[in-house]
């Protein structure tokens, strides 16, 4: 995935899209890394997102109810109500994410 059109980079994260909508399996699967010392506000109004944190430490701020949750290796979270959230990376984070429905190629 590295260096292909399935790698999407932002100022704070890199997403390697392993499975996308054009793979026609009904979900997408991404490896995402987030840079240390960053805060990344996110909102996916069209997707349910499940995330499993593999490496790193940080926090998940659920902006819908102003609650903060610790992130550490082995943490899994589910955003099934399209919650606005912010990822706060204290160290570099590496996570695997599943989106339903599948994210189309070329999406940010």
Write a concise synopsis of the structure shown.
Helix content is 0%, strand content 53%.
Structure description:
The protein has strands at residues 7-9, 13-19, 28-34, 38-42, 48-55, 58-62, 67-71, 76-79, 85-89, 93-100. It has 108 residues and is mostly beta strands. The two termini are 15 Å apart. It is built from no helices and ten strands. Helices cover 0% and strands 53% of the residues. β6 and β7 form a beta hairpin. The chain has a six-stranded antiparallel sheet with strand order 1-2-3-10-5-8, with no helix packed on it. Strands 4-9-6-7 form a four-stranded antiparallel sheet, with no helix packed on it.
Contiguous low-pLDDT stretches (5 residues minimum) are none
Share of residues in helices: under 10%
The number of distinct helices, counting runs of at least 4 residues, comes to 0
> What is the CA–CA distance across the termini?
15 Å
**Which structural category do the helix and sheet elements fall into?**
mainly beta
Q: How do the SSEs run, as a string of H and E?
A: EEEEEEEEEE
> What portion of the residues fall into strands of 2 or more residues?
over 45%
Major β-sheet annotation: 6 strands, antiparallel
Q: pLDDT average, as an integer? A: 96
Say how many strands there are. Answer: 10
Tell the overall outline.
Answer: globular
Radius of gyration: 13 Å
């Amino acid at each position: 995935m590295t260096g292909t059109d399935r790698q999407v980079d932002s100022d704070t994260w890199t997403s390697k899209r392993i499975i996308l909508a054009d793979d026609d399996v009904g979900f997408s699967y991404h490896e995402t890394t987030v840079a240390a010392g960053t805060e990344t506000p996110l909102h996916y109004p069209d997707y349910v997102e499940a995330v499993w944190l593999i490496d790193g430490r940080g926090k998940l701020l659920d902006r819908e109810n102003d609650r903060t949750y610790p992130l550490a290796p082995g943490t899994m979270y589910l955003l099934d109500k399209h919650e606005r959230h912010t990822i706060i990376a204290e160290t570099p984070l590496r996570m695997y994410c599943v989106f339903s429905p599948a994210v189309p190629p070329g999406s940010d």
